[in-house]
Amino acid sequence: MKKLLSFVIVLLSATLMMTSGCVETGNVKKESSAESGKPEPASKSEPAFGTKQSGETSVPSYTGEAPKTLAIFPFENNSVTNPQTFTPLCKGLAAMLITDLSKSGSSLKVVERENIKALIEEMAFSESGVVDESTAVRLGKILGAQSIAFGSFIVMGNQVRIDSRIIKVETGELIMADSIMGGSDNFMGLVNDLARKLAASLKVAFHAAKPGTQSSLDAALFFCKGLDAFDRGNKTEADLLFRKCLEIDPAYKTQVENIQGIN
Q: What whole-number distance in Å separates Cα of residue 138 and Cα of residue 125?
């Protein structure tokens, strides 16, 4: 009986010692983790639309002699949601820039849209007129332009981003690479801002007409659809679409008249 009691006492003592050791070990590990000071890795989140991501760099200002002639080619539509809705902007955006720069009273000579359109049609490119950089350079040489401008746009919800580049035709030098982004309710304002950036990169002055108070993307789309109809030779449809555009924003009057050859 005494032997059994002694055995039980020894067993209980051993159990208590093991339990105490485990608690102390756990405390040491916990303190070690706290003392390390290493924060938990933060979860990565997607960058907001239009924000600059790591790896993107700004292009230094062009210091060479500025070209005196510019050809502006249709922009590529990179919109993901309902991209077909915004396809008319490909040619329309380029046409608006051509009008803005040619009417700004600067010394820059802008190649007429009709000449670019005729060459693209002759070369049997896509209906939107979008061409890649190497093709744009080749067409620029044929048109006698010293520089070319092209780019892309994306419409996401009520936001619009436009990316543009200017290339010197003779050397292939990058003169400008820039982006603008803003609300779709100020589309003409965004185009004006881009035209101003293009002009500044080519070292010429720029004076833009003030956009209307309702310069929405809807007005731009009516204008661009009217431009498509005009290019197809359907003047009746074009006039109807241009009128709808002007009802929303009369500031498009100069754009419409330039397409119709009124001024």
A: 13
Query: Is residue 76 over pLDDT 70?
Result: yes
Which CATH architecture group holds 69-211?
3-Layer(aba) Sandwich (3.40)
The CA distances from residue 263 to 19, 103, 228, in Å, are 95, 10, 20
Strands (E), the chain: 69-72, 76-77, 109-110, 147-156, 159-168, 174-183
pLDDT band at 222 (very low <50, low <70, confident <90, very high): very high
- Answer whether 138's CB lies under 8 Å from 73's CB: no
Please tell me the predicted confidence (pLDDT) of residue 205. 81
Mean pLDDT, rounded, for 17-34: 42
Closest CA to 50 of 180, 194, 178, 225: 180
Residue 155 forms beta bridges with which residues? 160
Report the SS3 class of residue 154.
strand
What are the boundaries of each domain within the chain?
A: 69-211
pTM: 0.74
